[in-house]
Structures are given as structure tokens and as C-alpha cells.
Design goal:
CATH class: Alpha Beta
Strand content: 35-45%
Number of helices: 2
Order of helices and strands: HEEHEEEE
CATH architecture: Roll
Distance between the termini: 35 Å
Strand order of the largest sheet: 1-2-4-5-6-3
Helix content: 10-25%
Amino acid sequence: MTQGLDLDIREIMRRLPHRYPFLLVDRVTAYEPGKFLHAYKNVTYNEEFFQGHFPGRPVMPGVLIVEAMGQAGGILAYLSAGPERDGSVIYFMSMDKVKFRKPVIPGDRLDFKVELLRAGSKYWKLHGEAYVGDVRVVEGELTAALEVERA
């Protein structure tokens, strides 16, 4: 088990193609290949989306919380796929049973818990939850696809 492993932003960027302003995972705090991943994002008022969502009452858009959860799942898929999949690109394919429970605001630390439900040669099914403190704010099932990048 690799619990307690810490991947910083440089290690995350080695595994995801996303970059500012769309990279939404700051750090991976633990994972076990083929099982689970824990990560987080520090939500700050400087995020561009807070300018319009909503002025005077900033709330992180739910779709971006799900995207961040999907990015955490993508990191898990990449780490679980093994070295033969290095260079793979991970695509977010679908989301099911998503529930939004509480708003996320500037100053929150958004913690992600992603569990692998099913891994195939190409498609991966995951269950994800996002928390602020001990409060679950979003949950859902996600599907990702891994493809080898073509030159």
C-alpha cells in the first residue's frame, strides 16, 4: 500500500495534461494503485470563475468541482495503469449519480476521495466524493478513458 504518498503539483502535471487555469488538483496526499486516491484543492478568491459566480456571494461552480474530482480520478487511473501506459492521455467521459450537497466558497479546502470501481484496458469507472472538512459536498460516479497519445 502507498498510503501517505505525497505528489506535489509538478508530479501531478507529469500525469495530467491540464494547466492553469484548468488544473484543479493541488496535491495528492495518498493513493493505492488500483484502489483509491486522496487529493485536495485549495479554493481561493483569486480563481477567475468567482468574478461572475456569483458577484457578492462567490460559490465554486459545481461542474468545476466534478471536473476536479474527475482530474483526481484521472491521476488514479494513470498511476494504476502501469508504466506501459506512460504517455497516455486521460479523457473524462461521463458522470452519473452526481449530487451537490453544499456550496464551496473561497477559503475552503476541497478534499477528494476517489475509489476505483472497475478498470478495463481503456475505460475506467470511479466513485468520487468531495469534502470540505468532514462535510461531503459532492459525490458521483465518473468514467474516464485512457488513450495512448499519437504522434
